[in-house]
Specification:
The structure is a single chain. By secondary structure, the protein is of the alpha/beta class. Helix content is 28%, strand content 24%. Strand 5 and strand 6 form a beta hairpin. The two termini are 23 Å apart.
Length: 527
């Protein structure tokens, strides 16, 4: 386990300025237990109903954060015409769906089902059926080599092949995008090859239970695929019985091969004169969610930006139980609010930061980093001019698995050795000067089995090349994602200390002469 590396003897040589040091210490006093408790007692209250994205509880939390940003004097972003960046979520319900094979109408729920969020209103038909293996078309492996599918219906399996224990595409034991998001990528590949439609086989779903059938009739709230505008195709997922009728005697062999991620042999190629007609219609409801944003405008470097982020959504209500999310991520949300107050007060009293400070609480994190993904794909400030994102997700508790003597004086820091060599120098310098926490880097290990680097909103900045630091308490067991993640479990002294350390780091990054260098590769692979 890596611990804090001290650079005390190097400070003079590397020019760490800690601009306006006395002011930084003065305004850090605003970050105190009383202020943190005041906000967290509201954000993690029963009134917010667990803050699930797309619900009234989430909207109520957004309104509270906006009211606080206004009250402390943050400006809104001109491009937003307010303090919220809205983004669309969809909820679909099935109107009608029909699949006809050689003139025979099949039965929905028995012979096939259709996924609502990967099908759009429309129809397809064709007179020829072609087997395309896994439906992959990649530089490292392609099922379409020598295959003409133009105007035809393609039948394929979910999954992707391995060789010597590693996936062909990734070259490692981690699957590629052909597995997840998988379906959408395979549909796009078939469309690019000119196919008319797709019939899909899930090797591990022989038939459809009641839950699968009902899920095919109405979706939960979901985030629209950012690649939805790309050409795609509709598809139906077949039962194994119907798939065997269409593929014939080789089906059982193919199924066994796919279940072990085996390669498809050319001897199993299949094309038949099979008439297929498919029609699909659904009704879509659009629900808005939002990121809440306020800024403290900078001075001579106001067109450069320091982001401080945290997600304010949580898991909502389940079976009558409220998932309060006090630590996850009420703690990060309230850190953002009190840090914003400290910067706003400093600016009002003549200590305005050189760079513009952007305080952004995002929603949709628990669903799949939706809010930060939307921002990174639709930024209102240049990502090239964004010097850093300091992301705060769970900083109020103690890791119940941590057994070292420093368990009441640590924080996990993720991203210190990635994207910018300036990150650890500045962060460790601020910590050494003001807070003396143990900065634990264990989750920066590329082999981290928990994949923490990919599990919070900083990732959507990092994938665009923006340097990030992610501050985290490591609480993966105990009350993690349970109704018992409540405000009574917060370690207030440690919570205050962590937030102050992040504040001092942000202060230096906002006031130094240069933006952070982008000189270090991201060694974590992809999400």
């Amino acid at each position: 386990m890596k611990k804090l590396m001290f650079f005390v003897c190097l400070f003079a040589g590397i020019g760490i300025s800690f601009a306006q040091t006395d002011a930084s210490a003065k305004y850090a006093d605003i970050i105190n237990i009383n202020n943190l408790h005041k906000h967290l007692s509201i954000i993690a209250s029963a009134e917010m109903e667990g803050r699930e994205t797309g619900t009234e509880g989430q909207r109520r939390a957004a309104a509270y954060i906006e009211s606080q940003f206004k009250a402390i004097g943050l400006k809104s972003v001109a491009a937003l015409k307010g303090y919220q960046q809205y983004y669309p979520l969809y909820q679909d319900s099935l109107v009608s769906c029909q699949l006809t094979i050689n003139g025979k109408t099949t039965e929905y729920g028995k012979d096939f089902i259709s996924q609502l969020n990967n099908n759009e209103n429309g129809k397809f038909k064709g007179s020829k059926l072609v087997f395309a293996g896994y439906g992959i078309d990649d530089a490292n492996y392609s099922d379409y080599t020598g295959l003409d599918v133009k105007g035809k219906i393609v039948i394929m399996f979910l999954g992707e092949p391995k060789k010597n224990g590693n996936y062909f595409i990734s070259g490692s034991n981690r699957f590629s995008e052909w597995t997840f998001p998988g379906i959408s990528k395979k549909l796009a590949a078939a469309a690019a090859k000119g196919a008319a439609g797709v019939l899909l086989i899930n090797p591990r779903q022989e038939s459809f239970n009641d839950r699968a059938v009902e899920n095919g009739k109405k979706t939960g709230v979901y985030f629209p695929d950012s690649k939805a505008a790309e050409k795609s195709l509709n598809f139906a997922q077949l039962s194994h019985a119907l798939a065997k009728e269409l593929i014939g005697k080789n089906f059982d062999t193919l199924l066994a091969t796919v279940k072990t991620n085996g390669l498809m042999n050319s001897e199993w190629a299949m094309e038949s004169k099979t008439s297929v007609a498919y029609s699909f219609q659904k009704f879509r409801t659009t629900i808005n969610a939002s990121n809440v944003v306020g800024i403290v405008e900078g001075t001579d470097k106001k067109d450069e930006y320091v982001f401080v982020t945290g997600h304010y959504d949580h898991l909502g209500m389940r079976n009558g139980n409220i998932y309060y999310g006090a630590d996850d991520d009420g703690s990060g949300t309230c850190s953002v609010i009190v840090m914003a107050e400290a910067f706003a007060k400093a600016a009002a009293e003549g200590h305005r930061p050189r760079r513009t400070m952007v305080f952004m609480t995002v929603s949709g994190e628990e669903k799949g980093l939706w809010g930060s993904q939307y921002y990174s794909d639709n930024p209102f400030y240049s990502l090239d001019k964004t010097t850093v994102d300091l992301n705060i997700d769970m900083v109020g508790r103690v890791d119940t698995e941590r057994t070292t003597a420093d368990s009441l004086n640590y924080v996990y820091v993720i991203g210190h050795d990635k994207l910018s060599s300036d990150l650890p120098v500045i962060n460790e310098g601020a910590n050494n000067k003001y807070t003396n926490l143990v900065l634990d880097y264990k989750f920066d290990d590329p082999n981290d089995r928990n994949r923490i680097y990919f599990r919070s909103d900083h990732y959507n900045f990092a994938r665009k090349g923006v340097p990030i630091l992610f501050f985290y308490d490591g609480m993966l067991k105990s009350d993690y994602h349970k109704p018992t993640d409540t405000i009574e479990k917060i370690n207030w002294e440690l919570y205050e200390k962590r937030t102050r350390m992040i504040f001092h780091t942000a202060w230096e990054m906002a006031n130094r002469d240069e933006m952070l260098k982008r000189d270090t590769p991201l060694n974590m692979g992809t999400r």
